[in-house]
Amino acid sequence: MRDDAPWAEPWETPEGGLRPEIVDQCREVARRTGARLPRSLSEARLVKNRVPRSKSDLLVRQGESLSSVYLTAALDIIERWACALRPKVPTQRLAEIIAKLVHAEEIEPPDTPLGAALRRMVPVPAQATVSEWPFLQDALELLRLRDRLDPTNVMNASVRGGDDMARLRSICGPVPVWEIPRRPMTTSSFASAVPRSAWPEARRHAHGPDLATLWCSGLSPKSQQVTSFRATRRGDFPPVGAARGICFASSLSLRQRAPLPRVE
Question: Which tens digits make up the pLDDT trace of 184-208?
């Protein structure tokens, strides 16, 4: 810059315009927001029949008109511009810079729906002041509150959806998935409900006891069937001459005996 060139602010050119890097940054913000907006009534009808992908899609599904959707998108763009320009531009000049972006730089052409919505929500540069713009005042106040927020505190962790399970996942991590191995269905449903050790006994006595294989039982068939149906055997005891054994233990007289070998 020459010595006789007029002095300019860091965000301005010597001619009084905005620097290209600031304009390009703000133009990219407007382009990303405008790419998610429906451009016609036919696109709005398609948005109503699909899962909402953005805030504008949600507004369309709720029955808002296209003009209301574009006005909401314009306010969103202004808020994003204020967030990006606040570290570079003094607060007193922020309204003037945003007005120049809309009316002088023409980031969005006035003949587009988004450009018309921006010109409707942003005053002209000669009348743009923070004190006379309530929306910009509220946006700056929210940004100041955000600066005071500690993002490392677990109580300030951002949660999508706001439900209790999402809040627990953000704090404690994802819920572990427990998998139970599936047993092949080789037996009937009754077999799956009976303990594995008792199933052979129940199946053996399904058609009544085999009296030929019992050794001096001395019991009726009904009592034999009830006594023989038991769980896992924990011990044996002699039929007479000793105390009764632990529960689920069977007498030796009720044990199944192998048939004696035949003598020729």
Answer: 555 444 444 444 555 555 555 555 5
Same structural domain, 60 and 143: yes
The residue out of 118, 150, 182 marking a domain boundary is 150
∠106-96-12 over CA atoms, to 5°? 75
Q: Give residue for tokens 């921006």.
A: 118
Q: Note the pTM of the prediction, 2 decimals.
A: 0.53
With contact defined as beta carbons under 8 Å apart, do 34 and 73 qualify? yes
List the domain range (segments joined by +) for residue 40.
20-150
Beta strands, E only, the chain: 236-237, 250-251
Is residue 155 assigned to a domain?
Answer: no
* pLDDT digits 0-9 by tens, 129-166: 888 888 888 888 888 888 887 777 767 666 555 566 66
Question: Domain for residue 27, yes or no?
Answer: yes
Q: For the chain, how long is the longest CA-to-CA vector? A: 135
The answer on 140 and 209 residing in a single domain is no
List, for residues 1-13, the tens digit of each pLDDT value. 333 444 456 666 6
Question: Is residue 114 a contact partner of residue 34, using CB atoms and an 8 Å limit?
Answer: yes
HSE value, Cβ hemisphere, 13 Å, CA-based, for 115? 12
d(CA 170, CA 150): 16
Q: Is residue 98 part of a domain?
A: yes
Decide if 82 is inside a domain.
yes
Helix orientation angle between 91-103 and 20-35, rounded to the nearest 10 degrees: 70
